[in-house]
What we know:
Number of strands: 5
CATH topology of the largest domain: Ubiquitin-like (UB roll)
Low-confidence stretches: 1-29
Radius of gyration: 18 Å
Strand order of the largest sheet: 2-1-5-3-4
Distance between the termini: 40 Å
Number of helices: 7
Mean pLDDT: 87
Bound molecules: FE2/S2 (inorganic) cluster
Helix content: 25-40%
Largest sheet: 5 strands, mixed
CATH architecture of the largest domain: Roll
CATH superfamily of the largest domain: Beta-grasp domain
Shape: elongated
Order of helices and strands: HHEEHEEEHHHH
Structural class: alpha+beta
CATH class of the largest domain: Alpha Beta
Amino acid sequence: MTTSRRQFFGRAAAVSAGVALTSPLEEAVAAPENDSGVVEVAFKVNGERRKLGVDPRVTLLDALRERLQLTGTKKGCDRGQCGACTVHVDDRRVLSCLTLAVTVQGKEVTTIEGIADGGELHSVQRAFIENDGFQCGFCTSGQIMSAVKVVEEREVRTDDQIREAMSGNICRCGAYPNILAAIKQVKES
Ligand code: FES
Ligand code: FES
């Protein structure tokens, strides 16, 4: 079910009036807002607590890149079509260009900068290197963030299932066969 613009603003008004609502977006809108319309958002990024004052229209992608200098997350299309901006929010992969920063209030965000364990690369990062899973590298952080979740999905097994699960991540360089090989290597290890 989709939420119309009118329903959205109606619910936001209800939040302002103190009516209890429960969806994440509504909870986020309930975050403290000062006179200039800036909303305080507190969340964890790569295990670290962060607090930002943001315009409610700012995307998570812009907050990460421009406010927190986490530029490993890339802006490709900025409209949900390429997957370059993929990050994890509470363990689910999301497109940060389609996610308002205010909706991650109280959540855990993981970016490409946060998946290595100290100096030790994540197994998916290693597999991308070993299988030449990139050329220009622009799509690569998004591909890796998606792939980290795909290797955890037990129901995704065959080549076609992996391709389907990764279909939201576009690679203009066409590194798809090597990306598939990298994911299979980690799944089979
Ligand atoms: S930048 Fe988000 S999907 Fe393309
Ligand atoms: S490696 Fe260049 S866009 Fe994917």
